Amino acid sequence: MVDQPRVARYRQFGDPSVIGVEAQDVPDPGPHDVVVEIRRSGINPLDVKTRAGAQNVPIPEGGLIPHTDGAGIIRRLGSDAAGLTEGQRVWVWGVGREVGTAANLAVVPAERVMPLPENASFDLGASLGIPAITAALCLSRHEDRLIVPSTYALAGRSVLVRGGGAVAHFTIQLAKHLGARVVVAASPSKLQAVELAGADASVDRTRTDAQQALRELSPDGYDLIVDVSPAANIQSDIDLAAFRATIALYAREGGNSAEVDFRALQAKNITLRSIRTIELPQDEMQWAADTVTWALEAGALSVGEAHGLPIVLFSLDEIGQAHAAVEAPGFHGKALVTL
């Protein structure tokens, strides 16, 4: 256990300078909680948007400890925290608002704690969280049926991923492990990264003939399409979709609305799914967490520059710099706070 634990906290919304670092009392877990000694705290876009006040939620008394994801070692168990042990390496996800992972010691609901295999680093564990959970949810249904995770679950299927961030990264790796052929449409600066992540093919989305290039890579259409920017892409997605395809939308980059050709949507019996991970029932997110851990144990998930998602480490005292880096235009990689 850390001798003098510290915690990051902010008591008002604003730029990264509002985050301070202070001494932390050793927390007591509730009956269904565990105390995790955090080794890496992962920063997601949601974390910086929340700090900036973009989520339109009040700050509770006592302020907010940032970040929902992380990795570390269980140090204390609540009386009813089943299936976990002290000293166990774990990755944690979607921890909550008031008590986040930017702390030496984080109180985490036991249901948001998953085992971290010995073959997985804390860097990888802290990078998973909401991005990998979202990726799994986007791939969870095909032809309106929940898939059963296996290395042949999507065999013979084509998956189109639009985007090049952390969610796209884990979507590529999970889809490959599920047996799919994966094509990615991304900005020119992200093409090498998505190929390093394991994509079978990639297309520069800014090309004037990008639609034709994507069609030629899968003439029969794409069975699953995972899209970060539906406002810009929805009509293209419908055009490229195979019969009975699923289109999963997980973000709103580029706008909040778009015209949809319902005739074309219905003609192909396309399923349109919207994924907002933090609002889903626990059982659905648990399925996703189990799927991520299944792939993790098989060594199918990876991070780092050689795998297309560079890791950028910051100390707890540099947490403001970490937030500024994530907010900077063109940032690519995974920012982690090391504790």
Supply Rg. Answer: 20 Å
Unreliable parts: none
Shape: globular
N/C terminus separation = 12 Å
CATH topology of the largest domain: Quinone Oxidoreductase, Chain A, domain 1
Mean pLDDT: 95
Q: What is the count of β-strands? A: 17
Number of helices: 9
**Helical fraction:** 25-40%
Organism: Flaviflexus salsibiostraticola
Pfam family, one: ADH_zinc_N
Protein name: NADPH:quinone reductase
Domain Enoyl reductase (ER): 14-337
Care to describe what's here?
With 339 residues, the protein is of the alpha/beta class. The chain has two domains: 6-120 and 301-338, Medium-chain alcohol dehydrogenases, catalytic domain (Quinone Oxidoreductase, Chain A, domain 1); 133-278, NAD(P)-binding Rossmann-like Domain (Rossmann fold, 3-Layer(aba) Sandwich). It is 28% helix and 26% strand. The chain contains nine helices and 17 strands. The chain has helices at residues 45-52, 122-138, 166-177, 191-197, 210-217, 230-240, 262-267, 282-297, 319-327; strands spanning 6-9, 20-23, 33-42, 69-77, 89-92, 105-109, 113-115, 141-142, 145-146, 158-162, 181-186, 201-204, 222-227, 241-249, 271-274, 311-315, 334-338. The strands form four sheets. Strands 3, 4, 5, 6, 7, 16 and 17 form a seven-stranded mixed β-sheet that branches. Strand 8 and strand 9 form a beta hairpin. Helix 2 packs across helix 3 (166-177) and helix 2 crosses helix 8. It starts with 5 loop residues before the first strand and ends with a strand. The model has no long low-confidence stretch (mean pLDDT 95). It comes from Flaviflexus salsibiostraticola. Residues 14-337 form the Enoyl reductase (ER) domain. GO terms for molecular function: oxidoreductase activity. Keywords: NADP. Pfam families: ADH_N, ADH_zinc_N.
